[in-house]
Each structure stands twice: as structure tokens, then as C-alpha cells.
Specification:
This protein is mainly beta and 731 residues long. The chain has 7 helices and 46 strands. The protein has a 6-stranded mixed beta sheet with strand order 2-3-10-9-6-7, with no helix packed on it. It has a 5-stranded mixed beta sheet with strand order 12-19-18-15-16, with no helix packed on it.
Length: 731
């Protein structure tokens, strides 16, 4: 009666509902003395009710509907229908041992709809020793539980180390034990430890009077620990595995750019209970959860070894996957550079890429030895504009022949990443040639005829010739010439250019030409000029040379190319520097020569042609940008392999000849060029050099050598362009 009283007390709290439609027969709740099965739902109209104890014969019933006007009735075991208020207990209802039937009838307020709900009430038989329901904390019974069946099997994984059972007795007055320990009906037993393999656990139910005992046996089979130490997947946040991942393959390679300083590893285990450790380059291992990324693993430049170690569930089976991950290096430096002859100026520094080296004339060749700052880089070398040749790190190069004058050596270092750095060494081999290759006079004839190895001459001129000019040509471009008249002071004399007029005394005049080779050797040429006497001329009196004429630049007075420089400046295609100098002996760069040629020839841009961009366009000075583009439009320049122009590189004699002959669209049909060093001229340039020689635009140096790799001075560039202009006029 206590339970009935509690229900009656609480029910009024639950019936405050708005009135429903007159034909509403929905049930909101059912309350009865026993376990309702299935759980309540308005959609269900047929239930089983299991009473707890055989010693308690009574149950009760309460119904909740939404409309207080709905008519509610019940009857027991087909007896008389009795009214029951909404959500008020029926009071005690006597149940026979075994199966009973309680029916609830719900009639709508308008009497149009009637519904019957059947409750099959099971009152335990006295002294019943069966288990009505059995549940467990892990796994599932096989077969499914039936109180009439007493043998079951349960399979659990290795990770399940214990299990508990919850037996529900058919008669709550009975008693139960699980694995020998007292168990309370409807409550979980104490946990039972499991060993790997079979664990037979008895569950005993004893009737209330102790007369009968029913034994249920459950064989709990705990699986052995897994020995699976495989990965099912392995991924990197940077780089791709080679080969593609396969669980049976344990060694992989990967590569990343230099900009990638770290990577993560995401390993996924094939068996969920294995453990994973990730390490890099022998460092401390990091525990990683399967399917999640590791922390960032720092990568050194070069080779890195990442290890992924999997320990199986059994704790002893271990498998390691290795990834050799290469981080490319961007280091394209040399750490050292030595030469077999000469000294680098300035001293070597890995960040300095341009050097000058002077070697004596006796050094006809040299070798160099480069030392890479990073062994993963590669080194190549090129002399002049020839092809690049590979060279091993810290190894002497082959003997490199040196022509007299300037030799350009390029040493290119290509980093593992692919970026490159070029070191340029300008090697100046001094010449010992102190001879002239030509000598002409404005008046008179040399006796004997000029020959470079003949050093004494004489000539005669009429008394009316009061002055004379000489045009000497040095055999080697780095040699210099000076002239002296009648034992006077020596003054500079430009090669290939007429001297200033030399005033002649009547009678004998001695002219001396001193040629000084690059290495300081000297050779003296003497010319005795006999000027005739006028009939009434008094005895000759020596007079000094007239003073030099003023010039437009502050550093060309007396220079061999003074007149030519002035001519070029007057024509408007050559100019000096802001300080008033011309710097005639300064080497000409590629971009400067492009400006000189395009201005001298008056070339105009093609309006239909766009601008060309070289890979090193940023290095082209603003004053030269238009001229370089115009020269490219006209086909005078083509650039180097890789698309660069190298605007600040000193132009070679060979390159100048090619550009000049491209302006006239002519080249010789055949080679060789006729120069003694023809074999040093690349095949692609020979037709141009040959044409330039035939046109009188270029001449050889001492010993009939062209010296294709030697550079030209600003004065020489002006001279060659003037020769080109004269050639164009003569056509």
C-alpha cells in the first residue's frame, strides 16, 4: 500500500493539461507494480509485466491521459470492468501465481472511440530458481539469453581484463551467486578478472526455500594480445613517399625544397591497440596517436632519417618504418679557390664573385682548384664563351691555355636546390711583345720597307715639308708607344692613329719610337728624316715642337686616339663622364658597347616590336636599357644560354667583331680567318671575324694573332666603330 500512496500523492502534479479533442484516446503514461516490457509508448497496446516476488500477490494500475473527460476502466482476468480516475492508482490488484491479464479500456469523451491496452502480468511461481534476465559489462552472450538455456559463450578482446554480470531473478525471493560470490538480483556483480583464453564462470540461482538450484555457465573467451605491428597508412606533411606506401614496405625516400624546415608524420596503425613512436635523426622518440600528426620534426639541410616504430599490443612485437628525407640545399658558395699561377685580387671570399688575376707572359696556362661550401652542390667551369665543363669538388682543373691579354674564367656552382652562383676570374696574361706591326709616314718612304724586326730606317723629304706625322701600330694591344723628336722628351703615341705633326728642321732629324710591352720590355725604332735645304735658307736652327692643341676631354691630350675620340664626340655618339674625363683606356662593357653602336649608326626602334626582357634585366643600367633592347631588335645581340645578357661583363674582341658585322649583314663565306690563333676562335664566330678582317674593321695584334677573348678599351671601341662608318661610306 505504501507504493500506491506515493503514486496517488504525486499524480495531481501531472494532470494539468489543456483539453484535447473529444475523440482523444492517447495514453501519456502507465504505472504498474512490476517491470513493464517493452518500455511504455502510446503506440504500444500489449505489454508484459514482471512482478518481483512470488510472496507479494498484489500489483496496481494507473493511467494518464490528456483529457480529464476521457473515460478510464480496467478489469482483471476477464472480470468486471471498474472505473479508474485519470492518473489515480487502482489500489491493490490480486494476481495468481503464473500468468494474469489486466485490461485497461480508454473511451473518448464523445464516446466515439474506444481503445484496449492489455497487460500480461507474470507473478513468479513459489520457489522458482530461474534467472529471468542476464546482462554483462562486456561482450554479448551467444546464443542470446533464454532462461531455459544454461550454457553460453562470450568473446571479448584482449583489452577486456575483467567482466561483471547482472542477473535478474524470476522470483525476487530467490538468491544468486556469480562465480561463487553473492549477487543481488538486478545489480552488477563484482568484477571478475579474466585470463587469456577460456574463463568458465558459474551463475547459480537458488529458490526461496532452497530446494532447487539452477546453474548457468558462461564461458568468457578473452582473445590473445595482437602481434600486428603494421601500419595501414603513412603520410608526410611535406614531400611524397617513394615508393608509394605499402604496409609490407618499411623503407622509403622523400625530398623537400630548402624552404621546408620541418615536417609532420601521420602514421595510422593497422591494429588499434598498438603504440607508435616517431623520431628524427636519432633524437628522442615521440608518442603519436594513430591517425594523428606528430609534432613538427626539424629537418637539417641534406639527409634526414625519420623512424616510425610500432609496438604491437603484445608489447614485444616491434616493427620500424624508415623515411630517408632529403632537404635540398640552396648553398651555391665556394669555400675556397686557388690558382696554380697568379693571385686573386681581392683575396678570396665566398661572397665575392669577381676577381682579377695577373700572370706573367711565361704562364701560358694555369689550373684552378675550387672547394665547395656544400658537398651537395656541383661545380662547372667555362673559359671565355665556351661550353661549361664539370669538375669534381676540391680537384685541380685541366690545364687551361691562356692567350696573351685578358682571359675570362667562369666558375659556376649549382646548389642542390638548383639555384646557381657564378664566380668570374679575369686573368690578364702579360705580353712581352714590344714591337710594331705597322708604321707609315705622312711624307717620304721608309728605307728599308717596314718590317717589325727592322728597327732603323731613313727617309728624305723636300724642304717644303716642314712637318710630318707618323702612324705606328703596336703588334700587341697592351703595348704602349712613345715618340721623341731630335732627342726631346718622349710623349705618348696612340696605336693606329696619326701622331701630332712633328716640326722638321732642315737637314737631319731623328725620330725615335719607343714601344713598351705589357711586361715592361722595351724596343726602340729609329727613323732619320732628311729634310732638304731651301736655296737661300740660312743654317738650320732647331726649334721645339709646337704645343699640343686643346681637346674636349681632360684626359686624352697626347693619347694615340685623341683625334678619333674628338671626332666621335663631335658626331654625337660618344661622350665622357661627369668629371670631364673620357677614360680612353678603360675596358668597355657589353651594355656600353650597345649604346655606342646604336648611337653611331643612328638605329631606330621598330614600332611593331615589343621590349625584350633578359633574365638579368635588373642589372642593365637605365642609360643603356633602350640601346640594349634596340640592339636585340636589330639582331645585333642575342644573349647567353639561360636568357642572360651580362651587361656589366667586359666585351671581348670576338664579340665586338660579331656585333659590328651583324650591323652590315655580312659575313665571310668560309673560314679560317687567317689569324695565327684561329683555332682559339669558336666556329660560330669565325665567319664574322673573317668578314671584319676583310673589311678592315678589325686587325690582328702582334704575331698576327686576333686574341678573340681579349677585351677592348673605350678608345679601341671608338676606333673600330669609326672604321665601320668608313666602311659603310665606301660601299
Amino acid at each position: 500500500m505504501t507504493m500506491i500512496w506515493i503514486v496517488s500523492l504525486l499524480l495531481p502534479l501531472s494532470i494539468r493539461h489543456a483539453s484535447a479533442a473529444g475523440n482523444d484516446v492517447n495514453v501519456l503514461a502507465i504505472w504498474t507494480g512490476g517491470e513493464l516490457y517493452p518500455a511504455f509508448s502510446n503506440e504500444v497496446s500489449d505489454y508484459d509485466v514482471f512482478m518481483d516476488n512470488s510472496s507479494n500477490p498484489n500489483t496496481y494500475l494507473a493511467l494518464m491521459v490528456s483529457d480529464d473527460q476521457t473515460k478510464l476502466e480496467y478489469r482483471v482476468n476477464n472480470g468486471t470492468w471498474n472505473p479508474i480516475p485519470n492518473w489515480i492508482s487502482s489500489g491493490n490488484l490480486f494476481m495468481n501465481p503464473g500468468l494474469n491479464l489486466i485490461e485497461a479500456k480508454i473511451t473518448s469523451a464523445d464516446n466515439t472511440v474506444t481503445r484496449i491496452i492489455s497487460l500480461h502480468v507474470h507473478r513468479p511461481q513459489p520457489n522458482d530458481s530461474s534467472v529471468r534476465k542476464l546482462s554483462l559489462s562486456e561482450g554479448a552472450l551467444s546464443p542470446g539469453f533464454d532462461s531455459a538455456s544454461t550454457s553460453y559463450t562470450v568473446n571479448v578482446p584482449y583489452t577486456t581484463s575483467s567482466i561483471a554480470f547482472t542477473p535478474t531473478l524470476t522470483d525476487g525471493d530467490a538468491s544468486a551467486t556469480v562465480n561463487g560470490l553473492v549477487a543481488i538480483s538486478g545489480q552488477a556483480s563484482d568484477a571478475i578478472n579474466l585470463t587469456v583464453g577460456s574463463n568458465n564462470i558459474p551463475i547459480l540461482a537458488t529458490s526461496a526455500d532452497g530446494s532447487t538450484v539452477t546453474t548457468y555457465t558462461v564461458n568468457v573467451i578473452r582473445a590473445a594480445a595482437s602481434t600486428n605491428a603494421d601500419l595501414s597508412q603513412l603520410n608526410l606533411s611535406a614531400g611524397s613517399l617513394l615508393p608509394l606506401f605499402f604496409s609490407g614496405t618499411t623503407s622509403y625516400a622523400a625530398e623537400v625544397s630548402n624552404s621546408v624546415a620541418s615536417t609532420t608524420v601521420t602514421p595510422t596503425s593497422a591494429e588499434a591497440h598498438s603504440t607508435i613512436q616517431v623520431s628524427v635523426n636519432g633524437g628522442t622518440g615521440e608518442s603519436v596517436i594513430s591517425g594523428t600528426a606528430s609534432s613538427n620534426l626539424p629537418l637539417a639541410v641534406g639527409d634526414n632519417l625519420i623512424k616510425v616504430q610500432i609496438t604491437a599490443q603484445d608489447g614485444s612485437t616491434v616493427k620500424t618504418y624508415s623515411i630517408s628525407l632529403h632537404r635540398r640545399s640552396s648553398n651555391a658558395d665556394l669555400s675556397g679557390l686557388s690558382l696554380s699561377a697568379g693571385n686573386l685580387e681581392p683575396s678570396f671570399n665566398s661572397s665575392t664573385t669577381e676577381y682579377d688575376v695577373k700572370v706573367p707572359n711565361a704562364a701560358a696556362s694555369l689550373t684552378f682548384k675550387p672547394k665547395l661550401a656544400d658537398s651537395l652542390a656541383a661545380v662547372e667551369w667555362q673559359i671565355g664563351s665556351g661550353s661549361y665543363i664539370g669538375l669534381a669538388d676540391n680537384t685541380d682543373s685541366p690545364e687551361i691555355p691562356l692567350q696573351e691579354g685578358l682571359n675570362i674564367l667562369h666558375i659556376k656552382v649549382t646548389a642542390d636546390e638548383g639555384n646557381a652562383k657564378t664566380y668570374t676570374i679575369r686573368i690578364e696574361r702579360q705580353s712581352s711583345n714590344a714591337k710594331l706591326s705597322g708604321l707609315t709616314l705622312s711624307a717620304g718612304t721608309l728605307n728599308p720597307a717596314f718590317a717589325e724586326n727592322t728597327f732603323a730606317y731613313d727617309t728624305s723629304v723636300d724642304y717644303t715639308v716642314d712637318s710630318i706625322t707618323l702612324k705606328p701600330v703596336v703588334a700587341e694591344s697592351h703595348a704602349t708607344a712613345e715618340i721623341s723628336l731630335n732627342q726631346g722628351a718622349y710623349t705618348s703615341l696612340a696605336s693606329g692613329v696619326n701622331s701630332v705633326p712633328l716640326h722638321l728642321n732642315q737637314g737631319s732629324n731623328t725620330i725615335q719610337i719607343k714601344v713598351t710591352a705589357q711586361n715592361g720590355a722595351e724596343q726602340l725604332y729609329s727613323i732619320i728624316v732628311n729634310r732638304g735645304y731651301a736655296p737661300t735658307t740660312p743654317p738650320p736652327v732647331l726649334t721645339p715642337d709646337p704645343p699640343a692643341q686643346p681637346v674636349g676631354f681632360n684626359d686624352i691630350a697626347g693619347h694615340w686616339a685623341e683625334k678619333l675620340i674628338v671626332d666621335g664626340a663631335k658626331q654625337g655618339w660618344i661622350s665622357g663622364f661627369p668629371d670631364g674625363s673620357f677614360r680612353p683606356d678603360q675596358a668597355v662593357t657589353r651594355q656600353e658597347f650597345a649604346v655606342i653602336v646604336t648611337k653611331a649608326l643612328g638605329l631606330k626602334p621598330d614600332a611593331q616590336a615589343g621590349s625584350h626582357t633578359f633574365s638579368d634585366q635588373a642589372e642593365i643600367a637605365p642609360f643603356a636599357a633602350d640601346a640594349v633592347n634596340l640592339a636585340y631588335q636589330k639582331g645585333l645581340i642575342k644573349g647567353y644560354e639561360g636568357g642572360s645578357f651580362q651587361p656589366n661583363a667586359e666585351i671581348s674582341r670576338m664579340e665586338m667583331a660579331v656585333i659590328l658585322m651583324r650591323t652590315v649583314g655580312e659575313q665571310a663565306v668560309s673560314a679560317p680567318t687567317g689569324f695565327e690563333d684561329d683555332s682559339f676562335i669558336p666556329a660560330w664566330a669565325k665567319p664574322y671575324v673573317s668578314a671584319a678582317r676583310e673589311s678592315g674593321i678589325v686587325n690582328g695584334r702582334g704575331n698576327n694573332e686576333f686574341m678573340p677573348m681579349s677585351t677592348a678599351t673605350r678608345a679601341e671601341a671608338v676606333t673600330m666603330v669609326l672604321h665601320l662608318i668608313d666602311y659603310n661610306k665606301s660601299k
